[in-house]
């Protein structure tokens, strides 16, 4: 039932603790929002789940087993892609990378892989841009390219860090409708999200964090409680320490 | 025409073309990884490795000298990393320190060897070749080493093409699908050092990095697709080598390595001008 199980997680950058003692279960088949103010540790939480940052303590399991065993089931869209923008690669080939894990070593993408990539691009409304160099797109278009790439991975668990940031309302609808469609296929989706007004429309559950786990509940319960104000009023301990 | 078919010319031309083609491919990956200056530093720093290998083995066997160059290439890289990790010095400054320091050491050792009676017996004339590069000292064994290692490196690049592209374009994504970035970094670096060590005799410590960098710069003008860039860089390098070897045979006193580099630079200059003119018409 749980896609991600987090126990006792504490993460620090150098000496500064960022996440404290998080215990959290993300349920399978849900669309879960991670919500909290800037600097709350939302991105850090996702990075810890993906083993991009080494926690000070804690255990994380994915589908009741290790991350390593589930790499092919996870797709991740970072908040700001740290890609090499000057690299000569076309939009289509970036999206095709979503197939690389499945293609495996030494082999070339097949016609089927290319069809999957093209469909993902089409779903993100980018079919006009397949031959552009990746850097020749606008910010929102770039973001959609990386979402398209994640879609190609055919993942069971989609982890996205503010996928809607910088994306226009029309594309936002397209992206979230796609997420609902994936949910119907049994996939699990986790998104960092900033717009409190749309929480109700898009998400089943909300995880509120601000350095600590403030609350985790259904969207309705969260909206009806005072947890939201609490999460946003509490000062992170960067500031208190100073 | 007779010249073009002479055995010596053909052998040198083919070996040079293989060397340049493979260097161009590995060079494209290095350039996009932001390592073109590292290649230059390593090229210069490999020189004392050549002289030391000669001093230790008393032999000009290209294989020993190449091993010396390879080891010093690795040492130079380690020193560069050490400086940038343990001080506030910028990467470009630490590159400059390593480049001049190691190359100076090489020259020092070379003059020491020349003035030293222990080494009188051994043949010395070849050491200077490794600074400026020359095809006139190229032996059969050089050709074997160049061809085998170049083709080896080229095959690795083709086999791990997807992983290299992922590593250079998007490290985080590469990691998220289970690619070992550190391993790819090391393999890419070692391949670059191998190509530098292999090419040193033909092209010279001073110019070897242009074999890595110029074809990529040229090709980058013409395509926004890595596959095409690799292909164009490869063809350009092969063409330039052929022209360079040809020029150095026809015109007395032109040495091979520099001639190739001059042809490459000239073509690249042309490509800039071409691009500029075409840009104006649109
Ligand atoms: N690489 C890093 N090194 C040091 N500190 C970092 C690093 N990355 C993040 N931090 C710090 O950790 C804290 C949490 O950062 P994180 O990126 O997780 O916040 P976030 O909740 O995603 O914020 P935002 O809403 O702005 O994206 C911040 O105080 C930030 O300054
Ligand atoms: Mg963030």
Structural notes for this entry:
The complex is a heterodimer of chains A (242) and B (282). Chain A has 242 residues and is α/β, with parallel strands linked by helices. Chain A has helices spanning 42-49, 91-96, 100-103, 111-123, 139-152, 169-184, 199-202, 219-224, 227-233, 237-241, and strands at residues 2-13, 16-27, 31-35, 57-62, 74-77, 157-161, 188-192, 205-210, 212-218. Chain A has one domain (2-233): P-loop containing nucleotide triphosphate hydrolases (Rossmann fold, 3-Layer(aba) Sandwich), CATH 3.40.50. In chain A, the strands form two sheets. Chain A has a six-stranded mixed β-sheet with strand order 5-6-7-3-8-9, sandwiched between helices. The mean pLDDT of chain A is 92. Chain B has a single domain, classed as ABC transporter involved in vitamin B12 uptake, BtuC, CATH 1.10.3470.10. Chain B contains 14 helices and no strands. The structure holds adenosine-5'-triphosphate and magnesium ion. Residues 42-43, 79, 161, 192 of chain A line the site of magnesium ion (MG).
Shape of chain B: globular
Number of discrete domains of chain B: 1
At CATH level 2, the architecture of chain B is Orthogonal Bundle
Main sheet specs of chain A = 6 strands, mixed
User: How many E strands of chain A?
Assistant: 9
Shape of chain A: globular
Which helices and strands occur, and which strands form pairs?
The complex is a heterodimer of chains A (242) and B (282).
Chain A: E1 2-13, E2 16-27, E3 31-35, H1 42-49, E4 57-62, E5 74-77, H2 91-96, H3 100-103, H4 111-123, H5 139-152, E6 157-161, H6 169-184, E7 188-192, H7 199-202, E8 205-210, E9 212-218, H8 219-224, H9 227-233, H10 237-241
Parallel strand pairs in A: 3-7, 3-8, 5-6, 6-7
Antiparallel strand pairs in A: 1-2, 1-4, 8-9
Chain B: H1 2-5, H2 7-32, H3 36-45, H4 47-57, H5 62-86, H6 91-114, H7 129-132, H8 140-159, H9 161-169, H10 171-176, H11 181-203, H12 208-220, H13 226-250, H14 256-281
Helix pairs in contact in B: 2-8, 2-11, 2-12, 2-13, 3-5, 3-6, 3-12, 4-5, 4-6, 5-6, 5-11, 8-11, 11-12, 12-13, 12-14, 13-14
Magnesium ion (MG) binds at residues 42-43, 79, 161, 192 of chain A.
């Amino acid at each position: 039932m749980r896609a991600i199980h987090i126990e006792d997680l504490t993460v620090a950058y150098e000496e500064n603790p960022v996440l404290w003692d998080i215990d959290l279960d993300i349920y399978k088949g849900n669309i879960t929002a991670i919500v909290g103010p800037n600097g709350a540790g939302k991105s850090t939480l996702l990075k810890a789940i993906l083993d991009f940052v080494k926690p000070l303590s804690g255990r994380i399991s994915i589908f009741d087993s290790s991350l390593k065993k589930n790499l092919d089931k996870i797709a991740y869209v970072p908040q700001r892609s740290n890609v090499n923008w000057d690299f000569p690669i076309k939009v289509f080939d970036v999206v095709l990378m979503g197939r690389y894990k499945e293609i495996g070593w030494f082999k070339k993408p097949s016609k089927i892989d290319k069809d999957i990539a093209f469909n993902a691009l089409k779903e993100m409304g980018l079919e006009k841009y397949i031959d552009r160099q990746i850097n020749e797109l606008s910010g929102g278009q770039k973001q959609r390219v990386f979402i398209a790439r994640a879609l190609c991975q055919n993942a069971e668990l989609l982890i996205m860090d503010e996928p809607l940031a910088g994306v226009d309302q029309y594309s936002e609808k397209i992206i979230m409708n796609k997420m609902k469609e994936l949910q119907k296929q049994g996939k699990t989706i986790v998104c960092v999200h900033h717009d409190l007004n749309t929480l109700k429309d898009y998400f089943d559950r909300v995880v509120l964090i601000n350095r600590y786990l403030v609350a985790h509940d259904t969207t309705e319960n969260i909206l009806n409680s005072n947890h939201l104000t609490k999460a946003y009023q509490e000062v992170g301990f960067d500031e208190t320490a100073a | 025409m007779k010249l073009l078919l002479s055995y010596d010319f053909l052998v040198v031309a083919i070996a040079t073309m293989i060397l340049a083609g493979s260097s161009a491919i590995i060079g494209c990956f290095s350039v996009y990884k932001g390592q073109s200056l590292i290649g230059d530093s390593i090229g210069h720093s490999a020189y004392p490795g050549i002289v030391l290998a000669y001093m230790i083995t008393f032999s000009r066997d290209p294989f020993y000298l190449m091993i010396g160059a390879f080891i010093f290439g690795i040492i130079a890289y380690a020193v560069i990393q050490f400086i940038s990790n343990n001080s506030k010095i910028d990467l470009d400054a630490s590159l400059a320190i390593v480049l001049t320091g190691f190359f100076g050491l090489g020259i020092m050792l070379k003059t020491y060897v020349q003035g030293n009676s222990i080494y009188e017996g051994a043949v010395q004339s070849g050491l200077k070749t490794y600074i400026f590069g020359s095809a006139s000292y190229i032996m059969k064994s050089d050709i074997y080493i160049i061809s085998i290692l170049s083709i080896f490196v080229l095959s690795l690049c083709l086999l791990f093409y997807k992983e290299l592209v992922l590593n250079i374009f998007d490290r985080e994504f590469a990691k998220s699908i289970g690619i070992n970035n550190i391993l790819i970094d090391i393999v890419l670096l070692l391949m670059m050092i191998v190509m530098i060590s292999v090419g040193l005799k033909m092209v010279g410590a001073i110019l070897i990095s242009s074999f890595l960098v110029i074809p990529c710069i040229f090709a980058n003008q013409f395509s926004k697709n890595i596959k095409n860039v690799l292909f164009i860089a490869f063809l350009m390098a092969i063409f330039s080598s052929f022209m360079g070897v040809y020029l150095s045979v026809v015109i007395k006193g032109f040495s091979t390595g520099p001639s190739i580099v001059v042809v490459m630079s000239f073509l690249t200059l042309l490509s800039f001008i071409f691009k500029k003119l075409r840009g104006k018409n649109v």
